[in-house]
Amino acid sequence: MELNSIIKKIKKQEILDEVKNLISIPSHSKISDQETRIGEFIYKRFKENGFIVDLQEVESNRNNVIVKIIGERNDSKNSRSLALIGHMDTVPPGIEMPDPYKPKITNGKLLGRGATDMKAAVGAMIQTLLIIKKSGVKLKGDLYFIGVVGEETGGIGTNYLVKNGFKSNFAVVGEPTNLNICTSHKGDYELCITIRGKSAHGSMPEKGVNAIVAMAEFIVKVKELLIPEIKKRIQENTGFPTINFGLIQGGNKVNVVADICKLEIDRRWIISESIPQINCEFRNILDQICKKNPLLSYEITSMHPIDSCFGPFSIPRNHELVVRTKRVLSNMGYDTSTISINAWTDAATLMNAGIPTIILGPGDIEQAHTNEEWVEVQQIIKTVIFYLILIKEFCDWYN
Questions:
Q1: Which fold has domain 3-185+312-398?
Q2: What is the pLDDT of residue 4?
Q3: Interior angle at CA 257, CA 256 and CA 263, nearest 5
Q4: Is the CA virtual torsion 253, 254, 260, 262 positive or negative?
Q5: Cα–Cα distance for residue pair 366/203, rounded to 1 Å
Q6: Could you tell me what percent of the chain has a pLDDT over 70?
Q7: What is the DSSP string of 38-104?
Q8: Which stretches within 233-374 are classed as H helix?
Q9: Which of 63, 88, 215, 288 is the most exposed, having the fewest neighbouring CB atoms within 10 Å of its CB?
Q10: Which among 20, 21, 9, 22 is positioned nearest to 133, based on CA atoms?
Q11: Could you give the C-alpha distances from 312 to 151, 236, 273, 347, in angstroms and in order?
């Protein structure tokens, strides 16, 4: 069956119902079963439609859902394996978010927790595979859909997937890009700096060494000395690194000199940097501060899982995956812009494992995690078309 014939038979309401069903299932870290229910829902959805589907246990009752359509010919240069990958978890709903699990459509927008990040993309991926099966076409290359757990809380699902041997020639992560081709983003390094001093009675601060004061000096020096320097470093299409002082806590009581202060930092980094380099730059400033008093000391600790990859993501814009994706979208009359996004995604883990990846999905990243989270209905429908185009291009098909 020709691609245009398949596209004409797409049923808009079935796609929207798919996404609505996903939104209606809570799947965040503040509930006991996290992604269990949504994983079971997706598993049954594929199983009932005759797909090869497996559950990959990442943690107790937390499973990646892996669906595979086996390519029937592997002798074609043009037929390669392609994986459509999306995370099933969301962030918790905001206190003021009305009816987060009752999706509704208003003014052409689908609202609900996870609509943008990223249940619209996951629903589109599910529908894409169902359409492939119903159309009766045969793929030459293997096609995967993988629903992963824990992206919002450390990327554990995709990390587990690749560490247990998953391979594909190409991958598409469906994070929100407004259906532009995303080829890069920064890495995310979350760290905690602890400064220790000496406690004393609040009426005699000269008898102690105040860790809060030392941390304040550290923050000032970072702003004055380090931030101007890192702004000179540029990753193509992505920009310069950033430092955000996210959380600070110090002291035990108002009338006691603070003997400890902790500062949590969100450090976004680029491909020309490294974690040891970042730590060294912070240490240089901390050394300057702590050498003023032998009672001052510090430590830097990572807040990420020890075996996870939170590095930058970058795929060359002349890579086969990008070039062929741009060509087929152009032939269909669609925008072929390449962009970067600020948020970290599972694409970094996949690229780090040697799987060429692009990010392409419905919705605007600025809507993610907000109380008014929404995605345009037409973008969801168009996403299915995009994914069908990519499957035909990379897996190839025949009747």
A1: Aminopeptidase (3.40.630)
A2: 87
A3: 115
A4: positive
A5: 48
A6: 97
A7: HHHHHHHHHHHTT-EEEEEEEETTEEEEEEEE--S----TT---EEEEEE---PPPPTT-SSTTS-E
A8: 275-290, 320-331, 347-352
A9: 288
A10: 9
A11: 15, 12, 9, 9
- Phi then psi for residue 71, to 5 deg, are -65, 140
Helix runs in the chain, H state only: 3-8, 12-23, 36-48, 120-135, 156-163, 211-221, 227-230, 275-290, 320-331, 347-352, 377-394
For residues 357 and 350, give the distance between their C-alpha atoms in angstroms, rounded to a whole number. Answer: 7
Task: Using the structure block, give the residue that is written with the tokens 């890009």.
Answer: 177
Per-residue pLDDT tens over the stretch 171-197? 999 999 999 999 999 999 999 999 999
How many Cα atoms within 13 Å fall on the side-chain side of residue 275?
17
Residue the block writes with tokens 């105040």: 210
pLDDT of residue 307: 60
* Domain spans in the chain, listed from the N-terminal domain onward: 3-185+312-398, 187-302
Alpha-carbon gap, residue 12 to 27, rounded angstroms: 25
Angle 350-353-356 from CA coordinates, rounded to 5°? 55
Decide if pLDDT at 306 tops 90: no
Decide if pLDDT at 203 tops 60. Answer: yes
Whether 222 shows a pLDDT value over 90: the answer reads yes
- Whether the predicted pLDDT of 83 surpasses 60: yes
Band (pLDDT 50/70/90 cuts) for residue 78 is low
Taking only the tens place, the pLDDT of each residue in 137-150 is 899 999 999 999 99
For residues 251 and 294, give the distance between their C-alpha atoms in angstroms, rounded to a whole number: 19
C-alpha 391: how far from its chain's center? 22
Q: What is the CATH number of domain 187-302?
A: 3.30.70.360
Q: Is residue 145 within 8 Å of residue 126, measured between CB atoms? A: yes
Instruction: Mark 139-177 as b/e (b = at least 16 C-beta within 10 Å).
Output: bbbbbbbbbbbbbbeebbbbbbbbeeebebbbbbbbbbb
107: left (phi over 0), alpha (psi -120 to 50) or beta: left
Token duo for residue 32? 């006991």
Edge to edge, what strands does the sheet with 260-269 contain? 242-250, 260-269, 187-196, 297-302
Average pLDDT, the chain: 94
